[in-house]
Amino acid sequence: MKGTQIIIAEKVEGLADIQADDDDDGSNDEGKDAGGERMWSWTSFKFLVSLVGLIVFNGTIVLGNSLVILAVFTHSKLRPTTTNKFIVSLAVADLLLGIAVLPFSSANQVLH
Fold it and tell me: How many helices, marked H, and strands, marked E, lie in the chain?
């Protein structure tokens, strides 16, 4: 887990290193380092968009399944039916998947 956090931190720090360089000729070489090479690219933007999208997706999975479980346990009319017991079972399995597997799978997908 720490290795993944370090890689994410390095990519985010790389985005923070973008500097605007004004030369004597009046041109603005924004996004370039001292050698004139680009310091950022569309791949960095795609990385951030993918990361934010997967975080929102994972949060939605965890929140939605938690609400299903909470609804069945708080409303007494929903508890006794066999169908709702299967729904809660599915929600628990999906919640565990969203907590234990999806964050690592998402990090692997974004970082490779």
Answer: 4, 0
Global pTM value? 0.59
Q: Provide the pLDDT confidence category of residue 98 given band limits of 50, 70 and 90.
A: very high
**What residue spans define the domains of the chain?**
1-40, 42-112
Distances (CA, A) of 58 to 5, 11, 50, 77, 110: 17, 21, 12, 30, 14
Name the residue type at position 86.
Answer: F
Beta strand segments in 1-108, E: none
d(CA 10, CA 5): 9
CA angle (90, 50, 104) in 5-degree steps = 50
CB 111 within 8 A of CB 4: yes
Taking only the tens place, the pLDDT of each residue in 27-49 is: 445 555 566 665 556 678 888 88
